[in-house]
Amino acid sequence: AMGKKIQAEMDAQRSRFVSGAGERGIPERKANELFDLIDKFAGYGFNKSHAAAYALVAYHTAWLKAHYPAEFFAASMSFDMHQTDKLALFVEDIRRSGLSCLAPDVNASDAAFSVEEHEGGLAVRYALGALKGVGEKAMEFLVNERKSAGPFASLEDFANRIDPKLLNRRQVESLAAAGGFDAINPDRATVHAATETILAHAASAHEQRTSGQHGLFGGRGEETNIPPIRLPTDAIWTIAERMAAERDAFGFYFSAHPVDTQRHLLAAHKVKSFADLAQVEMASEGRSSATMAGLVEDVRWRTSAKGRRYMMATISDASGQYVATVFDDEPSAELEQAAKSGTCGLMTVELDRRPGEEMPRVTVKRFQSLDGLARRTRLQLHLTISDTAVLPVLTNELHGVRGGNGIVRATLPISAGRTATILLGKDFALDADLAMRLEHLLGEGRVELSAPPKLALVG
Fold this sequence. Notes:
Blueprint: H1 7-23, H2 28-43, H3 48-67, H4 69-79, H5 84-96, E1 101-102, E2 114-118, E3 121-125, H6 136-149, H7 155-161, H8 169-178, H9 188-193, H10 195-211, H11 239-250, H12 263-268, H13 274-280, E4 286-303, E5 309-317, E6 320-326, H14 329-341, E7 344-353, E8 361-369, H15 370-376, E9 380-384, H16 391-399, E10 402-415, E11 418-428, H17 432-442, E12 447-450
Parallel strand pairs: 1-3, 6-8, 9-10
Antiparallel strand pairs: 2-3, 4-5, 4-7, 5-6, 7-8, 9-12, 10-11
Helix pairs in contact: 1-2, 3-4, 4-5, 7-10, 8-11
């Protein structure tokens, strides 16, 4: 009864204990006092030597985390390398601590988590072996090959040097989806689609090496008689597809979250993350209202002690996962539908911080689909064009997204040292995917998607 913490069984044992004690000459009052101590210990307790050992381990752990945080996280994550839920929590904790968790990279990562210099400090580099479905042994071989013969210079170089018996399609796809080849080729969709070609190339190179059919001077890499890898030209991922592929590889959203695709809307509505609100609310107790956004991952119906039916929704944003309560019928129905379709939404919530509780309780009062909100919001897109040679391609791209209510403006050169800003139209269907495609065309930082500022009355 104590080990399982079964209170009903403990209550049933009291009379038996008191009766047995009385048979041995112990007064009933004393027997009840003794049982009260046993009952209290059954709540949660262990002996002093056990407590002392735990305290020492806790002290050592806290000291290491405080003074060597990057090394602490790398060691802890390597220990729990195959527990996706724990890795997700560690990544959140790393970022809350002000450190960087760098993405996996075939030219920088080890099979386990590691520490490296980054922007004047230390950062944790994500382990290749922690990706889903890749296998530690295969990643150890890959890392050993890189360390012995140098970084992989290209996809061809990678294919020429790997052992095709140790890598299969699932492993290469997982590496591509996680960004493992970004340093070689940042187009993840293209690399992912070229997996079979890469493996066929690797098999041909391996066959030449083992049969002695090397180039003129022998060796590996560019000296083999293998043609360059032909990459597909039509492989394109939307932002949602890129994040879904990344989640399949990591087991969680690593570099971005689906709500981030509508960051222009979030900024316009002054949305706060759960972590931000939890920190703001730390100093006060009571209830307050806020605007949040999140992906509805799961919903479950519950019945209160008074017989009232309510919903418990598991929601996530870029700062992590939390559980919200929903009592009203309309938002309950909308969250249930959002959970089925994997939809992100804007939520009006009530936060309730109670004494002794670290995190505020969240109650959803209103839910709006972010996609629906985006369609109703008149977005603005501003393009900065440095080379007018891209105009024909840009025209074709914009021609295919007519039929909305978005505004597009472009700033472009008209003569030496002079630019002009032109209104291209007010009927474009704008979204984050279009902005990403145009940024790929024009260059990083040259595309700005935003929601128009809200008008305010002034007196």
